[in-house]
Amino acid sequence: MTRIIAGEFRGRRLAVPADTTRPTSDRVREAVFSMIGSRADLEDMRVADLYAGTGALGLEAVSRGAESAVLVEADRRAAKVVRENIAVCQAQRRVRVVERTVESFLAAVAGPFDLVLIDPPYDVSSDDVAAVLRLLMPALADGAWVLLERGTRGAAVDLPPGLESVADKKYGDSMVRLLRRVDSFA
Questions:
Q1: Under a CB-based contact definition with an 8 Å cutoff, are residues 24 and 32 in contact?
Q2: Which residues, 6+ apart, have CB-to-CB distance to 12 below 8 Å?
Q3: Per-residue DSSP letters for 21-39?
Q4: Has keyword Chaperone (predicted)?
Q5: Is residue 70 part of a domain?
Q6: 52 in any annotated domain
Q7: Are 67 and 46 in contact (CB under 8 A)?
Q8: Is the Cβ–Cβ distance between 3 and 12 less than 8 Å?
């Protein structure tokens, strides 16, 4: 069972698409938001949840005070479940779903985002994730935060100029990296 851990939507149970996603566990989500919360205030942040899956990460951010969230999911079945989860949280005014690939979303998005949550399927290559980070740079606000979750068995992801690693934590088979935009990338 996946549920919202804290904030306005606390305790709401979220549906999980059968066989199409690997939801971030409640334990890892709690750790992720503790990691972010100890460094930044979520209040009024504009959030993008790339590879949304169930939408749990983006909904958790809004539940904890983020102004808005865009949840990007290419899989039609998963996007349908994300919409259902948004309705369960009654968050339609603050959260929207974009049913596209992450790459096509980033090619067209204006941004800026203050927090971007990236939890791709573990079989997405490190090179592909590095390419997504490069595409993401123009959509990041100055000082924006990026949270990257990967499998511990995958190769390290090369960071583009302008992003620095602030913290790395391992939780079971998940590796979480908190990144920060440190320059005025153009």
A1: yes
A2: 3, 4, 88, 89
A3: --PPPHHHHHHHHHHHHTT
A4: no
A5: yes
A6: yes
A7: yes
A8: yes
pTM of the model: 0.92
Task: List, for residues 31-55, the tens digit of each pLDDT value.
Answer: 889 999 999 999 999 999 999 999 9
Establish if 186 belongs to a structural domain: no
Q: Could you give the angle at which helices 76-88 and 56-63 cross, rounded to 10 degrees?
A: 20
Summarised one tens digit per residue, pLDDT across range 143-177 is: 999 999 998 887 789 999 999 999 999 988 888 99
Q: What is the CATH number of the domain that holds 131?
A: 3.40.50.150
**The pLDDT value given to residue 25:** 72
For residue 112, cis peptide bond before it (omega within 30 degrees of 0): yes
Both tokens assigned to 113: 């985002």
Domain count for the chain, please give it. Answer: 1
Residue 117's domain comprises 2-181
How far is CA 183 from each of CA 16, 39, 70, 71, 112, rounded to the nearest angstrom? Answer: 37, 18, 24, 26, 14
Is residue 128 a part of any domain in this protein?
Answer: yes
